[in-house]
Amino acid sequence: MLKIRLVLALLVVCLFTFSFVACGGKTGIDFEDTLWYLESYGQTDDMKSVLEHTNISATFDSKDGRVHGNAGCNGYTGSYKLDEGFAVSAISCTELGCTQPEGIMEQEDEYLKILESGNSLTLEDGQLKITGSEGVLIFIKSSGRRPER
Second label for 59, Cα 20 to 30 Å away, from 30, 99, 141, 146? Predict the structure, then answer.
């Protein structure tokens, strides 16, 4: 009798999990509703650290499928999807022109280009990695305060 109950309980859990994922539930990658800070970016064979005295952030809001954050100088927002893969689109941002530190606008442009090209997302060892046709972004989870750079 105990075996039957155990098998039935396991079956119910499996069916619930399958229906949750099939109906658009989370992907099993727990990255949403968390503040992430960019640690490095660029091409796989030429990764760059984020410039000193800058912070680039991203939060993926599961409620409305929006990504938002700071690109180093400007705030930004866009849409993201997790259907058959990962995709970010319709990014818009404020239009400030920062001059310090040197290279901040180039860093911001490259970050946004890579983010919008993103087509895969993985979470490993506490790092969120977004890979796309324009490069790779590697984020670390916020510890409740901005990283010191």
Answer: 99
Residues 68 and 126 grouped into a single domain: yes
Same domain, 45 and 13: no
Please give the Cα distance from 134 to 111 (Å, whole number).
9
Task: Compute the distance between CA of residue 68 and CA of residue 83 in angstroms, rounded to an integer.
Answer: 19
What does residue 135 show for φ and ψ, rounded to 5 degrees? 145, -160
pTM of the model: 0.76
- For residue 87, the domain's CATH number is 2.40.128.270
Residue 146: name the closest of 49, 29, 39 by CA.
39
Q: Which tens digit of pLDDT belongs to each residue from 67-97? A: 999 999 999 999 999 888 899 998 999 998 8
Burial of 35 (C-beta count, 10 Å sphere; 0-12/13-18/19+):
middle
